[in-house]
């Protein structure tokens, strides 16, 4: 089944996966200690599509923000300025709305803290943001309403590898986050690392 890009979050751990039929030549790269970015690979055709490159994970507030587009930055900025995670998600998702592409692609995002997690989606017909106390998944297609999801990795690297390997079609790359007493850790899984 093709569910597009998706986020899984729970307390302490979360992950984001790029799944794409249209732009498969992408990878997740590290930018410093606090940001993961989705970028085209050297093999990618040039495009002016604004939804191909973006920060997909950022350290912010008491945890990390993950998501499928440019909305990750304003969520992280609001969360860093002291907004509660739920409010940061609501404000940024509401302001940016769904993607204005041929498919009205929803924006999905999550905030992972040590003891809590929040998951949000803005679609053409709804804005949903929930606090979750167990792992939940939300995707751009088919699974575009948050639902409980079995997800038990204990590290950021394991989270990225786990979502990359899930049995949903067209895996491209993945990012994982883990929030612990020592801070936020990132993990990356790109196609060339299988």
UniProtKB/TrEMBL annotation:
It catalyses: IMP + H2O = 5-formamido-1-(5-phospho-D-ribosyl)imidazole-4-carboxamide. Pathway: Purine metabolism; IMP biosynthesis via de novo pathway; IMP from 5-formamido-1-(5-phospho-D-ribosyl)imidazole-4-carboxamide: step 1/1. One of its GO terms (molecular function) is IMP cyclohydrolase activity. Keywords: Hydrolase, Purine biosynthesis. It holds the Pfam family IMP_cyclohyd. Residues 2-179 form the Inosine monophosphate cyclohydrolase-like domain. One of its GO terms (biological process) is 'de novo' IMP biosynthetic process. It comes from the Archaea. The keyword Disulfide bond does not apply. The keyword Transferase does not apply. Its EC number is 3.5.4.10. HAMAP family: IMP_cyclohydrol. Belongs to the archaeal IMP cyclohydrolase family. Catalyzes the cyclization of 5-formylamidoimidazole-4-carboxamide ribonucleotide to IMP. This is IMP cyclohydrolase. It comes from Halobaculum lipolyticum.
